[in-house]
Design goal:
75% helix
Amino acid sequence: MNRPIQNEPATLAREHTALVMAYGQVQRRCSRLMAEQAALIERQSRELMRLRAAVILRDTALGWAHEDRAELEAAVPGLPTRRALAQRVDALVARVHALLRERDRWGAGTVPSLVGKPRGGRGFGPAA
């Protein structure tokens, strides 16, 4: 295992050069990755700022809408009762339509129609 001593400095120099080149490549790769990450963080920070602004705008508009609605409800007396009655009327109309569709399915001649026919003097006109 005797190596020539005069060759060792040249071998060491080549190894050192190879290591320095590899180290340089690693440094360039790390620098590139860090720059990419910094750019990504910057983009995400800008997006976060836009999203926060959008939430602030939405919450502000929602708050104003709630205030406007409260003012309108206060300006119209009995509005909640009227609204409840209107919803009840809508539900009843939907039920009447459903019943009419069901009657039509059975056929108009099969189920006798009770609408407008007097029934024995109980407030439906003269007794028949």
